């Protein structure tokens, strides 16, 4: 997840943006790791990682409460323009896209959006085609199964840290702008 955050910052910074933000989910540890990678890469590039918002939400498929949407709307409107926002997931990227639409903010001219997951079943509902980081889910699944098998068949019980790099950024219109 830290590698995902680093890749996200490099992509957005490379598009010429100088104002950055992160939209995450408070309950998820992966959101904290992605934010940390984003911050680390910003520091390495001598840039500010910008503002951050963490929404209160547990269930991935339920709609956001109106209070959370209003909070997101206020946050997006207050960002300096143009800003580039790294969303923890494609689901959050969709919420950001809808917030920009409600607030008449142009994507990508005023707000660039980058999600994670390359979830085409979600992304097809966006107002603007959303760029996304494609994870190596096949490798992650293989390593998870292999780890469980080793733990079940061998005396090794101590979990080891495995790192799987994201595959690539699938650039679409939401970041197709040079700030």
Notes on the protein architecture:
It is globular, with a radius of gyration of 17 Å. The two termini are 26 Å apart. The chain is an alpha/beta fold and 179 residues long. The chain is 42% helix and 16% strand. It has helices at residues 2-14, 29-44, 66-78, 90-102, 120-123, 137-153, and strands spanning 20-25, 51-55, 83-87, 111-116, 131-134, 168-170. A six-stranded mixed β-sheet has the order 2-1-3-4-5-6, with helices on both faces. The mean pLDDT is 89. Helix 1 (2-14) packs across helix 2 (29-44) and helix 3 crosses helix 4 (90-102). It contains six helices and six strands, in the order H-E-H-E-H-E-H-E-H-E-H-E.
Features:
179 residues; alpha/beta; 16% strand
């Amino acid at each position: 997840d830290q590698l995902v955050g680093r890749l996200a910052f490099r992509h957005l910074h490379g598009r010429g943006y100088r104002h950055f933000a992160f939209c995450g989910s408070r309950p998820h540890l992966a959101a904290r790791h992605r934010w940390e990678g984003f911050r680390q890469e910003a520091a390495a590039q001598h840039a500010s990682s910008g503002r951050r918002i963490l929404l209160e939400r547990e269930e991935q498929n339920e709609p956001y409460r109106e209070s959370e949407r209003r909070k997101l709307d206020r946050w997006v409107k207050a960002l300096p323009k143009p800003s580039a926002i790294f969303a923890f997931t494609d689901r959050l990227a969709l919420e950001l896209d809808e917030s920009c639409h409600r607030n008449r903010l142009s994507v990508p001219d005023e707000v660039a959006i980058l999600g994670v997951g390359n979830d085409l079943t979600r992304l097809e509902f966006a107002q603007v085609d959303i760029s996304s980081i494609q994870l190596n889910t096949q490798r992650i699944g293989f390593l998870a199964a292999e780890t469980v098998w080793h733990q079940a068949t061998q005396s090794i019980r101590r979990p080891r840290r495995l790192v799987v790099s994201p595959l690539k950024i699938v650039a679409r219109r939401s970041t197709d702008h040079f700030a």
